[in-house]
Amino acid sequence: MKKLLALALVALMLFTLLAACDNGAEETTPETNGTENDTNGITADNVLIGVVHIGPLADQGFTYNHDLGFRMMIENLGLRDDQYIPKFDVGTDAAAVTSAINELIQEGCHIIFATSFSHGFQMVEVAAEHPDVVFIHATGFGAHAYEGDNFHNHFSRIHEARYLAGIAAGLRTETNVLGYVAAHPFAEVISGYTAFFLGARSVNPDVTMEVIYINAWGDPPEEQLVAARLIELGADVIAQHSDSATPAIAAEEHGAWHIGYNNDMRDAAPNASLMSPRIDWSIFYTLAVDNFLNGRPIPIDWAGGLEEGAAFITELNDAIVAPGTREALDEATAEINAGTRHIFSGILIDVDGNYAQITDAGGNVLYTFDNENSRWDESDADARQSAPQFNAILEGINIIS
Fold first, then answer.
1. Is the domain of 42 the same as that of 81?
2. pTM for this one?
């Protein structure tokens, strides 16, 4: 029964992926499966933690940031480096992902993490076959529908940090055209660049944004080419949801400004990089492993944001940010944390001139932004998932094929 349910969940996740819809919700109350973990003699001295990383450590972006989170968790909990068993550059091929997960099981890992949305299909299938191993999947969904207590999801309210980055971009631009190097047309990406756009619009209502998808989570040469093309189209601030620092390098080479992701990219582009939204993955990794070792429930689905320090922005490049940027960011941060500023709220109009709507994989409307009191909180506990769901394309955002 458990295997059949897992396969059904895989089919649901695949349908959602093909429909270009990620998912999510704002404060996720750490709901748990209601049962305590049986540690079965697993302690801080002998626990083995396996990780499936999508990319190489040298990407200086997504995989670098996840690896940093795991290493900080190891330090926080006083574990040894050899208790962290990473598999780097696994990619998204189903056979390769399944093989990496099974290798970690064979190596004796008690708790296995996967870092990419694309790993979720294989994670949930293998989890059903190995109920004695705990599986934790970043950026995905489906844990609430899973029959069992050994599969969990987590993410961050990174849209909050992207909104702040948008404020910095909106104040800095001189052409009023922003460019965005986007990975896939999924809700995780759309939610992020929409939050960035709304942040820019909050301080500069004349801003528009050009978006180009690279149709990969990371492709350094393509990321660099796309960033250069966006600059040719008039964008003087380039932002990204892609895994490497090459958009920063392109911005530096072409005299544009840049907003990074996953890493402080000032070293790659000291004259271009304004700042970067980042996720501190160590906060959840420390919570999850500590709970596991102490027999406490691991949240089924978790998402922390600015208030928890799970989402944040790197130090401002004071030499090149616009005057007043720090003050504007401090004000917005305080209001987001106080619950008096909501990112996806009010009347929002889509590219077709209609009220913006969030839809599910089947095209069913989940929410409509048709009045001043409209409000959608990504990664909220009520949505029962941490992965983003906002997938409307707003007026002022131009998707370039």
1. yes
2. 0.86
